[in-house]
Design brief:
The chain has 137 residues and is an alpha+beta fold. The protein has one helix spanning 107-136, and strands spanning 42-46, 52-56. Helices cover 22% and strands 7% of the residues.
Length: 137
């Protein structure tokens, strides 16, 4: 191949440059449909043999939610599909958190319940005091 002219002010390169372009290895879907939908997402991986391969990525689920209130997710419990929460696939201690109502209610929901119960009790005491003051007059 003919050498490309080198500018005068450039230092000579240790090895001649090759201008051949390597072809990109194509990858194809392994499963039935060939559309990039949410349920058909893939990750490109290079195998130890140097081949380019694909890995199907599962969807992230919402994970366990608080049944009441607007607190949503329960922190500390992994977001997996429903089948993975069965006793066959996951130990009991992985499905809960070490606090009261852990794994059932989120921390915010528990806090809200405690505060509400405290305020209700305070309200009862205030009513009782006002009733006693009214009786004394």
């Amino acid at each position: 191949p003919a050498q490309h002219p080198v500018p005068l002010n450039a230092a000579p390169s240790p090895q001649p440059r090759s201008f051949a372009v390597n072809m990109v290895q194509r990858i194809t879907y392994r499963r039935r449909h060939a559309y990039a939908t949410k349920s058909n997402r893939i990750r490109k991986l290079r195998t130890p043999g140097g081949q380019l391969s694909i890995q199907y990525v599962k969807k992230k689920t919402k994970g366990p939610q608080t049944p009441s209130g607007d607190h949503g997710k329960i922190h500390g419990v992994p977001r997996l599909n429903k089948q993975a929460y069965s006793n066959k696939h996951m130990a009991k201690n992985k499905k809960s958190v070490s606090r009261s109502y852990g794994g059932v209610l989120s921390g915010g929901a528990v806090r809200e319940r405690i505060v509400r119960a405290f305020l209700v009790e305070e309200q009862k005491i205030v009513k009782k005091v006002l009733k006693l003051q009214a009786a004394k007059k």
